[in-house]
Amino acid sequence: MAIFEYLSVFDEDYLTRVRNFHHGAADAHTNANRLSFLEHAFDPANRRDPRFRGFTSVLKRTLKYVCFWLEPSVPENVACDDVAYLVAASFLMEVIRAFLTRGIENLAHFRARGYLIHRIADLLFSWSRKRSGPFYDLIEGSPLVIDTSPGTRRLIWDPEIVWEGHFSTAETSAILENMRNLWNSIENEVGSETLRDAANEFDTRLYERGHELSLYQHS
Predict the structure, then answer these.
(1) What is the pLDDT of residues 194-210, one digit of tens each?
(2) Nearest-5° Cα angle at 129, 102 to 186
(3) 27-36 contacts, C-beta under 8 A, 24 or more apart
(4) What does the longest C-alpha to C-alpha distance in the chain come to?
(5) CA distances from 43 to 23, 56, 102, 165 (A)
(6) For residues 126 and 136, what is the distance between their CA atoms, to the nearest angstrom?
(7) CA-based Rg of the chain, rounded to a whole angstrom?
(8) Is residue 139 classed exposed, middle or buried when 0-12, 13-18 and 19+ CB atoms within 10 A define those classes?
(9) β-pair partners for 166
């Protein structure tokens, strides 16, 4: 299915970038090393660094097609529980969480990465409206931390592959809460009208969706 292919390509690109960032080290794909890569990749100061420049484009493309294939109006919609578990086993949610907590510090950063925020807001808005089920749990529940994984493709096709993960401790924020904190921080700094104008540069629905997500309360 298409969504499997997009998640597989994303994971492969991500792991390759992590390995290159750590100069091919044998332990390059550990959780700590992946998070170290993301900290640098989403640091606004590194936005034009050639080591990271293409990564946000890969993330945007993946989000675009994941949202498309899970859209209720698409006849071939694949939004079943098994697909939610596939998304959970991939690195997509890990990367989204890292971006929301590291990638935007002010309005200038928002404008520089507005298209990526737009894609993330679309996904979170769609899944948050479900209010229950495995897709909602991905963004509202305790984050699933991946300890060991070779990526989606090998995980599915190689029966010898080991995947290990755990739910993080209660003090770790859910993804919806990360989004709320990010949006409220910028809106409190610049005001609703300024943020609306900036959001409208990318999509006229972005402000409304971001504002609704900013009202999220952890259950």
Answers:
(1) 999 999 999 999 999 99
(2) 30
(3) 29/149, 29/150, 31/145, 31/146, 31/147, 34/91, 34/94, 35/98
(4) 54
(5) 20, 12, 6, 26
(6) 9
(7) 17
(8) buried
(9) 145
Task: Write the DSSP symbol of residue 30.
Answer: S
Query: Which pTM was predicted?
Result: 0.92
The identity of residue 57, as a single letter, is S
Alpha helices for the chain (secondary structure H): 2-21, 31-41, 53-69, 81-89, 92-102, 107-112, 114-128, 134-140, 152-157, 175-190, 192-200, 206-214
State pLDDT tens for residues 109-132: 999 999 999 999 999 998 888 778
C-alpha–C-alpha distance, residues 162 and 72, integer Å: 33
Residue 33 tokens read as 């090393």
Beta-bridge partners for 145? 166
Total residue length of the chain: 219
Contact assessment for residue 207 and residue 195, using Cβ atoms and an 8 Å cutoff? yes
**H/E element, 155:** helix 152-157
With left for phi above 0 and alpha for psi between -120 and 50, is residue 131 left, alpha or beta?
left
CA distance 206 to 209: 5
How much helix, strand and coil, in percent to the nearest 5, is found in the chain? 65, 5, 30
Q: Are 132 and 139 in contact (CB under 8 A)?
A: no
